[in-house]
Amino acid sequence: MSADAQNFYIILILSTLVTLAIRIIPFLLVRFMRFPDWLTTFLHYLPLTMMTALFVQNIFDKKTGHLLPLINFENLLAILPALVVGYLKNSLMAVVIVGIVCMAALRLLH
């Protein structure tokens, strides 16, 4: 194995470990902490606001020269079943899975 390939794999492994540590350590620390009630209430609504921001961002397309954003109907058709599942199941994972499957099906048919 060449030195360049070896350096690449070392950097890849180290960056993977750093990424995992950044994403996992906060979840481990939260288990041992007690948050104030106002922060717990705020964090309760955070997933909903994040999903809303992602939905709105993907429904509308901003085109240069247009005053109003255009509706992306392909994304809208994938989002609608995901919203229904989210309302019925109250599961973020179910929403993500349904959205991915619907988007994949639309792209396959398109």
Tell me what the structure shows:
The protein has 110 residues and is mainly alpha-helical. It has two domains: 1-33; 36-109, no CATH class. It is built from four helices and two strands, in the order H-H-E-E-H-H. The protein has a two-stranded antiparallel ribbon. Strand 1 and strand 2 form a beta hairpin. Helix 3 runs antiparallel to helix 4. It is extended, with a radius of gyration of 20 Å. The mean pLDDT is 89.
- Largest β-sheet summary: 2 strands, antiparallel
Q: Which percent bin holds the helix content? A: over 70%
Mean pLDDT: 89
Number of domains: 2
Distance between the termini: 44 Å
Q: How many beta-strand elements? A: 2
Order of secondary-structure elements:
HHEEHH
Beta-strand content: under 5%
Roughly how many Å is the radius of gyration?
20 Å
Q: Treating each run of at least 4 consecutive H or I residues as one helix, how many helices? A: 4
Identify the overall geometry.
extended
Return residue spans where pLDDT drops below 50 for at least 5 consecutive residues.
none
- Enumerate the strands of the largest sheet in spatial order, edge to edge or round the barrel: 1-2
Derived from helix and strand composition plus strand pairing, the structural class reads: mainly alpha
Pfam families: AzlD (PF05437)
Transmembrane segments: 7-30, 42-60, 67-85, 91-109
Organism: Leuconostoc holzapfelii
Protein name: AzlD domain-containing protein
